[in-house]
Amino acid sequence: MVKATHRSERRKTRRLFFAALVKELYLMWPIFSGILIIMLGSGIIISLIEEWSIGEALYFTFVTGLTIGYGDLTPKHASARVLAMVIGFSGIVLTGIVAAVSVQALGAAGRDDPERRE
């Protein structure tokens, strides 16, 4: 019986977390979408400058934006390199916002759990 109660508490906490996460993402969506538009726009411009396909440009954008940077695609022109820096900084900001939203949702799940208030 104790395991079943513990399991139901975990499910309830998980539900509270995901509800709070969806709420936080809804509030932050304008910022997320703005950053993604900047990243994708920069990637498309790089593809035109470097004469890459759209697939290569999207791959480069997300590998650079997630700060992985494999190095298999590298811009040769100075303007494309500047745009790659914009993508990298945007990716760092996006990662920070995702982490902040997740922490906020965890805090909200803990506050909204009536069993934790006692």
UniProtKB/TrEMBL annotation:
List this protein's GO terms for biological process: stabilization of membrane potential
Main location, first listed in the record: membrane
Q: Where in the cell is it found?
A: Membrane
Query: What is the membrane topology here?
Result: Multi-pass membrane protein
Q: Got a GO cellular component term for this one?
A: plasma membrane
In alphabetical order, the GO MF annotations are: outward rectifier potassium channel activity; potassium ion leak channel activity
Instruction: Read off the InterPro entries from this record.
Output: 2pore_dom_K_chnl (IPR003280), K_chnl_dom (IPR013099)
Instruction: Tell me where in this chain the Potassium channel domain is found.
Output: 36-106
**Membrane-spanning residues:** 21-46, 52-70, 82-106
State the UniProt keywords alphabetically: Ion channel, Ion transport, Membrane, Transmembrane, Transmembrane helix, Transport
Q: What is this protein called?
A: Ion channel
